[in-house]
Request: fold
Amino acid sequence: MSASSVFYGEFEIIVRPEQNKLGAWIAEVSVRRGDQSIVDVLPRTVQPEWLNEDEATRDGVEWGRRYIDREFNSPQSRSWVAERAHAETWFRDEEEGRTPKSED
Reply:
């Protein structure tokens, strides 16, 4: 089975399609950044099976792109403490804005 290599930004996604014992195609995927291996995984738990090698390769590339986007390209969320503080400020401001101001 031939390996396919695709660059996605500064990452390289390497897909090695292989046939399982039932004849379906699955993809072994690894992701590298330069000389560093980011992930070298052969997802075997819940993995789609494909009718041909090209479909397995396409799926492996899509999986690699989703992984990179999720782990490296999405904005980092704030901690729950910061989220709670932000929510408390928003609720306080909303409450103060909705309550009628008393006239002196």
User: Anything to note?
Assistant: Strands lie at 4-8, 11-19, 25-33, 36-41.
